[in-house]
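ARCHIVE CARD
CATEGORY: sequence design from structure
SOURCE FIELD: tokenized fold
FIELD CONTENT:
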């Protein structure tokens, strides 16, 4: 299932599991498939699956219970819905930063033209 798209496999798996949580395929309180099952499903090693699980744990979407498994958090849906407006705000801020940097680049180019107009002198 992991595609050779340039995006790391563990992020592709995390994206897929996150989408399953968002759509309700993995409902709050539901157990995630075992590491072995996920390895087989995505055709990857256990370390790749563990990295994907770590991403989702960091995002507070899942919780592990020693000896029992990994489960979707009860408030995972709320965490996902709260994330979407934040991510669009971040994207907007990034666009503003890119525009500001482009403007600064233009200003630096203008300054360089003004300062270095004449022919270069050799010593």
């Amino acid at each position: 299932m992991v595609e050779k798209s340039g995006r790391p496999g563990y992020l592709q798996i995390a994206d897929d599991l996150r989408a399953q949580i968002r759509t309700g395929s993995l409902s709050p309180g539901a157990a995630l498939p075992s590491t072995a099952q996920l390895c087989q499903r995505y055709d990857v090693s256990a370390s790749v699956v563990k990295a994907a699980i770590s991403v989702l744990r960091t995002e507070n979407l899942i919780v592990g219970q020693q000896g029992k498994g990994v489960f979707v958090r009860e408030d995972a849906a709320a965490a996902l819905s709260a994330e979407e407006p934040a991510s669009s705000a971040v994207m907007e801020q990034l666009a503003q930063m890119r525009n500001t940097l482009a403007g600064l680049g233009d200003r630096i180019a203008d300054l360089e033209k003004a300062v270095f107009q004449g022919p270069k002198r050799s010593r």
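CARD ANNOTATION: The helical segments are 9-23, 35-42, 46-58, 76-115. The mean pLDDT is 85.
SHELF: design records, drawer C
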